[in-house]
Amino acid sequence: MDIANCYLDGNADAVEFCPHDSYHNVLAASTYTLQEGDQPSRCGSISLFNIDGDIGSLDLVYRMETSGIFDIKWNPPGVHDDKFLAQADADGYLRIHRLEGCCNGADGVYLKEVTSEKISNSMCLYLDWNPSATSITVGLSDGSVSIVSLLESNLEVQETWKAHDFELWTTSFDSHQPNLVYTGSDDCKFIGWDLRESPSSRMVFQNSKVHKMGVCCIAKNPHDENSLLTGSYDEYLRVWDLRSISKPVNETSICLGGGVWRVKHHPFIPGLVLAACMHNGFAIAAITGKEAKVLETYKKHDSLAYGGDWQRGEAMLGRGKKKKPLVATCSFYDRLVRIWMPENDIVL
């Protein structure tokens, strides 16, 4: 069920609901636009919206211009009071913005940059926070991965190593074992690394045979320490069993009909997954044990399906009625952000 939509000022590539209490109504959206010409440039923006699904409102409350952005992520909730939004951009910078202002109606919120660090002369393509919000892993366009610390509002590159042969599209901390970092790349490889080891011996596993095209996204299951998802240009969402970490097992795969660019686990409904499928819109899938099935698809976007997220909040209303999850999605070339609810009741 469609709730609201809005066009951005550039090509939309990421949407992220704020996970922090009292700010669940705040949605951040980022853009990346290549300005062609004699001196090409990559510009971008971050927009903040106030979302009210009950009345169908999507109100722009703040916008800032940036360099072209590939990824944004809020820091994990419950660690400390600061509400940080991290930005990975085309200029090779990692930037940290703090959400400021009152949460009443979100009308007064804005972002203030608190620190930034030049990570590389290559482009920063992806980022992920560790569970304690003290480190960020960053994937780079030259195939390298960087581990960056955030302490007392200061960023510092701890180490960088060559992890892949081509663009490193995705990297993720293991939320249950944050000494483990996963990476995926255009070289079709899915690799696990142990940060406690030296760079020359920290590779825990390397799988180069399962994905038939580039690995676009990696998402550890927050509800199951032994389960992880990967998405690929080959159009498959894959479920991995990590119980033997030196040799993860691809338990099941499901074709989603388009390159699986992003996947998001629902924050509190186990097994519920939102997938951005590039040329084939968005899909909501259910992962239960060794089975995966598509519950429904959403194809109201007319361009590449790139970004999607679930709004946090309680699943039940006070009157005992179930409340459907709220979803934000964005598409690239048509610069569109949509807010919607699943058509079907979510029953797992």
From TrEMBL:
Gene3D superfamilies reported in the protein's UniProt record: YVTN repeat-like/Quinoprotein amine dehydrogenase (2.130.10.10)
Superkingdom assignment: Eukaryota
Catalytic reaction equation(s): diphthine methyl ester-[translation elongation factor 2] + H2O = diphthine-[translation elongation factor 2] + methanol + H(+)
Pfam families: WD40
GO biological process, one term: methylation
Assigned keywords, A-Z: Hydrolase, Methyltransferase, Repeat, Transferase, WD repeat
Record InterPro entries: Diphthine_MTase, WD40/YVTN_repeat-like_dom_sf, WD40_repeat_CS, WD40_repeat_dom_sf, WD40_rpt
Pathway: Protein modification; peptidyl-diphthamide biosynthesis
WD repeats: 208-244
Alphabetical list of SMART domains matching this protein: WD40 (SM00320)
Annotated PROSITE patterns: WD_REPEATS_1, WD_REPEATS_2, WD_REPEATS_REGION
Listed EC numbers: 3.1.1.97
GO MF term (any one): diphthine methylesterase activity
Example of a GO cellular component annotation carried by this entry: cytoplasm
Family of the protein in this entry: Belongs to the DPH7 family.
Name under which the protein is recorded: methylated diphthine methylhydrolase
